[in-house]
């Protein structure tokens, strides 16, 4: 039997939020037994950052620790990155380019690599890292261990709550990041006793960046054995470049400058303002804010930087944060909370998912993660998917920056991989679930970033390659740097911009919005113009290829990754050219260019099957001898997922070869690489295999107690890729068909999804039992015909004049 859908749960939660919001006390909110399924909850405070709970409004983020003696809020703002506008393009590259190509053609890979290292790389060789605003610490004057304690993150309301009773009283703290007000709101209430605390700011520090682990084999989750209820952070000497002062009677203003990098000066200023509304005694000074004898306190926290765009740093952050905190302070807490719940719910509430429930679902979240690999907890997979949606809404909203390697949440000033945008997989993966999960609006920041890259990347194309159009390599940052970084083995890959264009094209396919098509066409056309100039004839006459390039980060057997025409490049270009041709036709533009792209596309070397039956990663049959047989990247399987060029319906031989390749790579890897494997097996219709991999992803090696994905360390792409994989198991739309339950595992026999999206503007509700569809509703444009595949059955669903189609199975 299909259980009561979590859609019902969600509406109840929203209603409950509304009731609470209408009353003055947060205690009035009724507890609902059934809202468990969309919450993360714990019986102890966060001991480490990876146990803290993230909140965000797309631009401002906080990690909430839920501590009793001293609460810690670690804060981020999405434009607080190091450095300032810079142009890293290296003019020496142009002269080296023909020589590097010749050395590659002669098989002199080491020489080609050395020359590229000396002359083709960006200056500086690394990009600017993302930063942090440091912490707000609330130190309570008296505190003792509580007799009962609970903290939670409710995904449907996007509110983090901490509740406890101690000898001092009964307390409840609520936190949310309001998008309508652009402030973080913290509400503290004492039902008994009083609130007596000092609020201070602790500047960002440079913790030793945790060493990346490339095998994904570390234990990410450890359940803290004993709880230190009264834990206090070590004080860090305040940095001289940070100023703290009272700003009116009830506000604290913190101002500072971003980090400089050795070669790029710091050009941003930032401001962080905390405004207090309380019935207690409040004093502000350069030490911080002192609150005594309060029953209720509302803190309104806002932050901004002087970043306007990648070439303008002339913003006025102080004025912005004053206005936002004062505007919010003029509203009651109840109104702020109501508006926030409505705003978040308008996105989050669009989709619900029920995969069934076992006893495990009533355990605290950290215990469930610890047990996930060894047991079946289908509700945890549903929670993981909903958490992915929550993280998307919280880290990527219209007008802000796209979700970076850590979304928007970052503790220190030298995060792993700079917490930037790695565009040889990670940024694209971040956006895989957006449309199927009915969050297409959250892709807007990515579109604007690619529009910036088309500007900076045009300079890189001209300077390095003497080419038209634009190019981006394997990484970018807030300043939209596009030249190859880190070293040739990673950086000399000219496909990052093209892959981003393909990601945006998929986004367009879900809506077919004409305005989006026009914007996208300009980007795709520029990307194509670059490749029309730089593609060369394969020296062995097998067609058109890229050179120099590489198959992301994977070494071939000749001591380098640099090579000619790796499979992924040809696959990405086949898509890019195909999409651009289609767009030119739809827009009635550039017929001659479309013709040229047709011919060029036909000349790209096709995918090849190697001597072991594998899909070749390289133009040469090198796979058997590659040094890392379990390499995390599976770049040559781009054609299977996300692309779909190789698929079970049209190219069964190539699918068989892809399976040989993927089998060899192994199922479990780093967080994101595990999620990609899950997406691939789901797309190939292998439900049990996908399910095993998902269990590995959700288990303690790849998921922290706060459900953040562990590369390790924390990297958000695994959360998003895992969400995409779970949805891909339930429904897929590609090749002009909608596939129902294409990779459903036996462990999820009954369930229901509501509000999932499919290509061509379709929204679907699907219930299943005994592993088979039970009820389907499609919504979209009236008269649309949808080709639905249910196992081996095919039928055409025609949407009626109300734009709906309904079917029930006996
Ligand atoms: C690529 C990957 C790493 C990591 C980094 C951010 O370099 O190969 O595993 O995800 O991006």
Description:
This protein has 810 residues and is α+β, with helices and mostly antiparallel strands. 31% of the residues lie in helices and 21% in strands. Helix 2 runs antiparallel to helix 3 (109-119). Bound molecules: alpha-L-fucopyranose.
Quickly count the helices.
19
**Which ligands are bound?**
alpha-L-fucopyranose
Strand proportion? 15-25%
The radius of gyration is: 26 Å
Low-confidence stretches: 1-35
**Shape verdict:** globular
Neighbour order of strands in the largest sheet = 1-6-7-8-9-16-13-12-11
Q: Which percent bin holds the helix content?
A: 25-40%
Number of strands: 29
Notable traits:
binds alpha-L-fucopyranose, globular, nine-stranded antiparallel sheet, disordered N terminus, 31% helix, seven-stranded antiparallel sheet, 19 helices, alpha+beta, 810 residues
Detail the topology: elements first, then pairings.
Elements: H1 6-22, E1 39-42, E2 53-56, E3 60-64, E4 70-77, H2 93-105, H3 109-119, E5 134-140, E6 148-154, E7 159-166, E8 169-178, E9 183-192, E10 195-202, E11 243-246, E12 251-257, E13 269-278, E14 281-285, E15 288-294, E16 296-305, H4 317-329, H5 333-348, E17 352-354, H6 365-371, H7 378-395, E18 421-422, H8 426-430, H9 444-465, E19 475-476, H10 488-491, H11 496-511, H12 514-534, E20 536-537, E21 544-545, H13 567-587, H14 591-603, H15 639-643, H16 652-665, H17 671-683, H18 687-698, H19 717-730, E22 731-734, E23 737-740, E24 751-758, E25 762-769, E26 772-779, E27 785-790, E28 793-798, E29 804-808
Helix pairs in contact: 1-5, 2-3, 7-19, 9-11, 9-12, 11-12, 11-13, 12-13, 13-14, 17-18, 17-19, 18-19
The structure holds alpha-L-fucopyranose.
């Amino acid at each position: 039997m299909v259980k009561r859908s979590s859609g019902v749960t969600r509406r109840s939660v929203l209603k409950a939020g509304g009731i609470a919001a209408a009353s003055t006390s947060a205690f009035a909110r009724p507890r609902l037994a059934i809202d468990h399924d969309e919450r993360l909850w714990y019986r102890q405070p966060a001991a480490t950052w990876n146990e803290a709970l993230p909140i965000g409004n797309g631009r401002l983020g906080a990690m909430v620790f839920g501590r009793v003696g001293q609460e810690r809020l670690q804060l981020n703002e999405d434009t607080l990155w190091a450095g300032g506008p810079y142009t890293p393009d290296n003019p020496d590259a142009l002269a080296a380019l023909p020589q590097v190509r010749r050395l590659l053609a002669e098989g002199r890979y080491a020489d080609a690599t050395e020359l590229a290292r000396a002359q083709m790389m960006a200056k500086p060789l690394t990009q600017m890292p993302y930063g942090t605003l440091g912490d707000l610490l609330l130190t309570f004057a008296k505190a003792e261990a509580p007799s009962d304690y609970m903290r939670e993150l409710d995904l449907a309301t996007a509110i983090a709550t901490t509740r406890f009773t101690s000898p001092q009283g009964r307390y409840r703290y609520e936190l949310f990041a309001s998008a309508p007000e652009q402030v973080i709101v913290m509400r503290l209430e004492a039902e008994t006793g009083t609130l007596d605390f000092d609020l201070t700011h602790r500047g960002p520090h440079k913790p030793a960046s945790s060493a990346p682990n490339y095998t994904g084999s570390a234990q990410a989750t450890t359940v803290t054995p004993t709880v230190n209820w009264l834990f206090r952070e070590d004080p860090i000497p305040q940095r001289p470049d940070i100023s703290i002062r009272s700003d009116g009677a009830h506000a604290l203003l913190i101002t500072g400058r971003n980090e400089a990098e050795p070669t790029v000066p710091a050009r941003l200023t930032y401001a962080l303002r905390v405004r207090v509304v309380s019935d207690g005694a409040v004093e502000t000074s350069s030490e911080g804010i002192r609150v005594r004898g309060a029953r209720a306190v509302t803190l309104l926290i806002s932050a901004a930087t002087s970043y306007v765009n990648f070439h303008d740093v002339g913003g006025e952050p102080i004025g912005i944060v004053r206005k936002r905190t004062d505007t919010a302070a003029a509203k009651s807490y109840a109104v702020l909370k109501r508006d926030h719940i409505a705003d978040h719910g308008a996105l989050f509430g669009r989709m619900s998912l029920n995969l069934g429930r076992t006893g495990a679902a009533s355990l605290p979240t950290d215990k469930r993660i610890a047990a996930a690999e060894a047991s079946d907890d289908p509700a945890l997979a549903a929670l993981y998917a909903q958490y992915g949606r929550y993280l998307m809404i919280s880290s990527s909203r219209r007008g802000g920056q796209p979700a970076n390697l850590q979304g928007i949440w970052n503790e220190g000033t030298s995060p792993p991989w700079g917490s930037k945008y790695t565009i040889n997989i990670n940024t694209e993966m971040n956006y895989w679930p957006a449309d199927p999960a009915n969050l297409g609006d959250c892709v807007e920041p990515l579109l604007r970033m690619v529009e910036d890259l088309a500007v900076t990347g045009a300079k890189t194309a001209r300077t390095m390659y003497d080419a038209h159009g634009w190019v981006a390599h394997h990484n970018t940052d807030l300043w939209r740097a596009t030249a190859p970084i880190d070293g040739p083995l990673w950086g000399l890959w000219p496909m990052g911009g093209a892959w981003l264009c393909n990601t945006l094209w998929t986004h367009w396919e879900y809506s077919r919005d004409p305005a989006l098509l026009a914007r996208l066409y300009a980007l795709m056309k520029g990307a194509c113009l670059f490749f029309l100039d730089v593609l060369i004839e394969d020296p062995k006459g097998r067609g058109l290829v890229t050179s120099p390039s590489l198959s992301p980060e994977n070494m071939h057997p000749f001591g380098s990754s640099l090579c000619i025409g790796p499979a992924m490049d040809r696959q990405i270009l086949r898509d890019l050219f195909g999409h651009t041709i289609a767009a030119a036709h739809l827009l009635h533009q550039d017929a001659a260019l479309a013709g040229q792209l047709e011919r060029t596309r036909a000349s790209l070397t096709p995918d090849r099957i190697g001597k072991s039956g594998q899909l070749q990663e390289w133009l040469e049959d090198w796979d058997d001898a590659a040094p890392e047989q379990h390499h995390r990247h599976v770049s040559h399987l781009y054609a299977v997922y996300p692309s779909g060029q190789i698929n079970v319906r049209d190219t069964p031989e190539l699918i068989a070869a892809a399976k040989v390749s993927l089998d060899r790579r192994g199922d479990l890897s780093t967080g994101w690489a595990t999620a990609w494997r899950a997406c691939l097996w789901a797309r190939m219709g292998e439900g049990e295999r996908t399910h095993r991999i998902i269990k590995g992803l959700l288990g303690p090696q790849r998921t922290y107690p706060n459900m953040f994905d562990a590369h390790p360390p924390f990297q958000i792409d695994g959360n998003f890729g895992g969400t995409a994989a779970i949805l891909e198991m339930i429904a897929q739309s590609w090749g002009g068909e909608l596939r129902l339950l294409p990779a459903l595992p036996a462990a999820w026999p009954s369930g229901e999804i509501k509000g999932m999206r499919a290509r061509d503007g379709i929204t679907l509700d699907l219930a299943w039992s005994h592993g088979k569809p039970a009820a389907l509703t499609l919504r979209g444009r009236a008269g649309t015909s949808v080709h639905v595949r249910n196992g081996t059955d095919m039928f055409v669903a025609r949407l009626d004049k109300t734009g709906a189609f309904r079917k029930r199975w006996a």
